[in-house]
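Review form for a predicted model. The reviewer records the input and the model, then writes brief findings.
Reviewer: anonymous (R2)
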Amino acid sequence: MIKTIAWKNNTVILLDQKALPLNERYITCRTYQEIISAIKDLTVRGAPAIGVAAAMGAALGAAALSSIPPEKFRHKFSAICAEIAQSRPTARNLFWALERMKKHLEDSIKSGSKNLVQELISEAKRICTEDIEINRQMGKNGRALLADGDNILTHCNAGALATAGYGTALGVIRAAKAEGKNLHVYVDETRPVLQGARLTAWELQKEKIPATLITDNMAGFLMQQGRIDKIIVGADRIAANGDIANKIGTYALAVLAKAHGIPFYVAAPLSTIDVSIKTGATIPIEERSGTEVTHLRGLPIAPAKTKVYNPAFDLTPARYITAIVTERGILRKPYLNSIRTASKGNPGHETISF
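Model under review:
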């Protein structure tokens, strides 16, 4: 199994996704500031993986605190979490993980724990382990949506690299393949950072799942030709009504899928659902550096001083989504109801009021 992130000897080991597919190398983070940099520069990316990295970054920050009274420890740890929270704005899992770490600290203080640092390290490790288990359960839940012989279109990377391991959208494909289904995957290159070409195609080769790489603007033509049976993507944040924020280009695929009568599925853990946001209209959308568009591997591909607009994500309304695969089952319309039911008792959704 591809290992994206691990805690080892009070350091965090990350697979450097910027180097793929040419080099498979790992970097070692010893401070939470290095984790912040890794999240910002896409060394680690994908909403669930960002959440795990944030939790481990918070644990690294805690490990660096001297032996101080609980109240001072709480104050300093809260400041560390606030700093990590500024790394990227869209992925809900980042904030969910930090909220969980802070809650665990409060519970540990209340219980009279004598080793708050170890409590936080253990919680970060649990978040990592649970993420893999959740992904595998999503795969089991979602595999029934895919039929033997299906040609499936993906966008961006929602595989093991976007999580602690196994994957969300690719996890469903992996589970269906393990069940004996013969599948073929069309991989959108996913401009401007090419997560599909660099990462998804690399993962599928490792898994020996037949795949064909296409440019983003070929997808509609393939649908028109009847060569796409299903579309499955991940999500970075899901609103209470089922609207999703995902990699830029997802909305266009959803609209095309609707026009061609193709099922459009989303696979994401419950930690991606933000019940405090009623619709996708208020999901914060990250805008990244224009050099991601004007340059490729450091080489300019556009005239100097070209004006660039580079939103990293777009919004897909719930009306275009056929179903949402989670660890608690397949959610269907009306999503306001199915999300409410799935969220009951789930950590982070305690104050659900929609």
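Findings: The first strand starts at residue 5 and ends at 8.
Further findings: The domain at 138-343 is CATH 3.40.50.10470 (Rossmann fold).
Recommendation: see findings above.
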